[in-house]
Amino acid sequence: MKGLSQRLTGFAALFMAFFGATQAMARSEDAVxxxxxPSKHGVVEIALCGASVCGRLIESDSIRANPxxxxxKNSDVALRTRxxxxxMLLTGFHRGSNGWDGGTIYNPEDGGTxxxxxxxxxxxxxxxxGCVIWPLxxxxxxHRLP
Length: 146
Prior knowledge:
Shape: globular
CATH class: Mainly Beta
CATH topology: Lipocalin
Order of helices and strands: HEEEHEEEEEE
Number of helices: 2
CATH architecture: Beta Barrel
Largest sheet: 8 strands, antiparallel, barrel
Helix content: 10-25%
Structural class: alpha+beta
Strand order of the largest sheet: 1-2-3-4-6-7-8-9
Number of domains: 1
Protein backbone atom coordinates (compact mmCIF):
# COMPACT_ATOMS: atom_id res chain seq x y z
CA MET A 1 0.00 0.00 0.00
CA LYS A 2 2.92 2.32 0.80
CA GLY A 3 4.33 1.86 -2.73
CA LEU A 4 0.98 2.76 -4.29
CA SER A 5 0.74 5.87 -2.12
CA GLN A 6 4.23 6.98 -3.17
CA ARG A 7 3.41 6.40 -6.85
CA LEU A 8 0.19 8.41 -6.55
CA THR A 9 2.06 11.21 -4.79
CA GLY A 10 4.67 11.16 -7.59
CA PHE A 11 1.92 11.21 -10.22
CA ALA A 12 0.22 14.13 -8.49
CA ALA A 13 3.51 16.06 -8.40
CA LEU A 14 4.12 15.32 -12.09
CA PHE A 15 0.56 16.40 -12.94
CA MET A 16 0.93 19.65 -10.99
CA ALA A 17 4.30 20.39 -12.64
CA PHE A 18 2.79 19.83 -16.10
CA PHE A 19 -0.36 21.80 -15.26
CA GLY A 20 1.74 24.66 -13.85
CA ALA A 21 3.89 24.77 -17.01
CA THR A 22 0.76 24.78 -19.16
CA GLN A 23 -0.68 27.63 -17.12
CA ALA A 24 2.56 29.63 -17.50
CA MET A 25 2.42 29.17 -21.27
CA ALA A 26 -1.25 30.19 -21.37
CA ARG A 27 -0.47 33.40 -19.47
CA SER A 28 1.80 34.47 -22.32
CA GLU A 29 -1.34 34.72 -24.46
CA ASP A 30 -2.45 37.48 -22.13
CA ALA A 31 -0.04 39.84 -23.90
CA VAL A 32 -2.91 40.60 -26.28
CA UNK A 33 -4.45 43.98 -25.49
CA UNK A 34 -3.67 47.68 -25.12
CA UNK A 35 -0.46 48.62 -23.32
CA UNK A 36 0.83 51.93 -22.02
CA UNK A 37 4.47 52.71 -22.84
CA PRO A 38 6.59 54.90 -20.57
CA SER A 39 7.99 57.05 -23.37
CA LYS A 40 5.83 59.69 -25.06
CA HIS A 41 2.76 58.31 -23.28
CA GLY A 42 2.24 55.80 -26.04
CA VAL A 43 -0.43 53.16 -26.38
CA VAL A 44 0.44 49.98 -28.29
CA GLU A 45 -2.13 47.42 -29.33
CA ILE A 46 -0.66 43.91 -29.18
CA ALA A 47 -2.47 41.24 -31.15
CA LEU A 48 -1.89 37.66 -32.24
CA CYS A 49 -0.37 37.56 -35.72
CA GLY A 50 -0.50 33.94 -36.77
CA ALA A 51 1.52 31.95 -34.23
CA SER A 52 3.22 35.13 -33.07
CA VAL A 53 2.38 38.54 -31.63
CA CYS A 54 2.70 41.97 -33.19
CA GLY A 55 2.08 45.47 -31.95
CA ARG A 56 0.85 48.73 -33.50
CA LEU A 57 1.17 52.24 -32.16
CA ILE A 58 -2.33 53.62 -31.72
CA GLU A 59 -1.71 56.69 -29.57
CA SER A 60 1.17 58.89 -28.34
CA ASP A 61 1.94 62.50 -27.43
CA SER A 62 2.97 63.09 -31.06
CA ILE A 63 -0.27 61.64 -32.45
CA ARG A 64 -2.39 63.59 -29.95
CA ALA A 65 -0.58 66.81 -30.92
CA ASN A 66 -0.84 66.05 -34.64
CA PRO A 67 -3.10 63.19 -35.77
CA UNK A 68 -1.33 63.29 -39.15
CA UNK A 69 2.16 62.89 -37.61
CA UNK A 70 4.60 60.88 -39.73
CA UNK A 71 7.54 58.60 -39.09
CA UNK A 72 10.01 61.45 -39.75
CA LYS A 73 12.98 59.94 -37.87
CA ASN A 74 13.02 56.65 -39.76
CA SER A 75 16.55 55.72 -40.86
CA ASP A 76 15.05 54.75 -44.24
CA VAL A 77 14.20 58.04 -45.96
CA ALA A 78 11.58 56.30 -48.13
CA LEU A 79 9.57 55.38 -44.99
CA ARG A 80 9.46 58.84 -43.43
CA THR A 81 6.04 59.63 -44.88
CA ARG A 82 4.34 56.72 -43.06
CA UNK A 83 1.75 57.84 -40.53
CA UNK A 84 2.68 57.18 -36.88
CA UNK A 85 -0.87 56.13 -36.04
CA UNK A 86 -1.14 52.42 -36.77
CA UNK A 87 2.60 52.00 -37.29
CA MET A 88 3.75 48.42 -36.68
CA LEU A 89 6.31 48.49 -33.85
CA LEU A 90 6.59 44.82 -32.81
CA THR A 91 7.14 42.11 -35.45
CA GLY A 92 8.70 38.71 -36.10
CA PHE A 93 8.46 37.14 -32.65
CA HIS A 94 8.26 33.42 -31.93
CA ARG A 95 7.15 31.72 -28.75
CA GLY A 96 9.89 31.25 -26.21
CA SER A 97 9.91 29.63 -22.80
CA ASN A 98 9.04 32.89 -21.04
CA GLY A 99 7.20 34.90 -23.69
CA TRP A 100 8.39 35.82 -27.17
CA ASP A 101 11.89 35.98 -28.62
CA GLY A 102 13.58 36.68 -31.93
CA GLY A 103 11.47 39.65 -32.93
CA THR A 104 12.17 43.31 -33.48
CA ILE A 105 10.92 46.52 -31.96
CA TYR A 106 10.88 49.75 -33.96
CA ASN A 107 11.40 52.99 -32.06
CA PRO A 108 9.88 55.97 -33.91
CA GLU A 109 11.64 58.34 -31.48
CA ASP A 110 15.05 57.53 -32.99
CA GLY A 111 14.10 55.67 -36.19
CA GLY A 112 15.93 52.50 -35.13
CA THR A 113 14.89 48.86 -35.21
CA UNK A 114 16.22 46.59 -32.47
CA UNK A 115 16.32 42.85 -31.73
CA UNK A 116 13.79 42.31 -28.95
CA UNK A 117 12.21 39.99 -26.42
CA UNK A 118 8.84 40.30 -24.69
CA UNK A 119 8.21 38.76 -21.30
CA UNK A 120 4.95 38.79 -19.38
CA UNK A 121 5.99 39.89 -15.87
CA UNK A 122 2.48 39.64 -14.46
CA UNK A 123 -1.09 39.76 -15.75
CA UNK A 124 -0.83 43.51 -16.36
CA UNK A 125 2.90 44.04 -16.89
CA UNK A 126 5.12 43.40 -19.93
CA UNK A 127 8.89 43.60 -19.90
CA UNK A 128 10.42 44.48 -23.29
CA UNK A 129 14.10 44.38 -24.04
CA GLY A 130 15.58 45.78 -27.24
CA CYS A 131 19.23 45.39 -28.21
CA VAL A 132 21.45 46.85 -30.90
CA ILE A 133 23.76 43.94 -30.12
CA TRP A 134 24.01 42.18 -26.79
CA PRO A 135 24.90 43.64 -24.22
CA LEU A 136 23.89 47.04 -25.68
CA UNK A 137 20.26 46.77 -24.64
CA UNK A 138 17.51 48.95 -23.23
CA UNK A 139 14.47 47.71 -21.35
CA UNK A 140 11.01 49.09 -20.74
CA UNK A 141 8.07 47.99 -18.65
CA UNK A 142 4.65 48.41 -20.22
CA HIS A 143 1.39 48.34 -18.28
CA ARG A 144 -1.96 47.01 -19.45
CA LEU A 145 -4.69 49.54 -20.02
CA PRO A 146 -8.28 48.75 -19.00
